[in-house]
Amino acid sequence: MFTSLREGDVLDHQLAGRLEAAAGLRNLLVHGYARLDDRQVWDALGRLDDLRAFAAAALAAAER
Questions:
Q1: 18, 64 Cβ separation under 8 angstroms
Q2: Rounded to 5 degrees, what angle do the CA atoms 61, 56, 19 make?
Q3: What is the pTM of this model?
Q4: Per-residue model confidence as pLDDT tens digits over 3-19
Q5: For the chain, what is the HEC assignment?
């Protein structure tokens, strides 16, 4: 999804990449594919601004 949004100029390249990484972490958390590193989860909590940026980009795209 984030690749499509990047290609459609809804998200910038860097934000899309960070959101793709967050989705990967989400998969680990939900599906338990691998052993989690607590540090990785803690670091992800420090990137909540990416979710705000995603919401702003989605709103801007909806208003176009």
A1: no
A2: 95
A3: 0.65
A4: 999 999 999 999 999 99
A5: CHHHHHHCCCCCHHHHHHHHHHHHHHHHHHHCCCCCCHHHHHHHHCCCHHHHHHHHHHHHHHHC
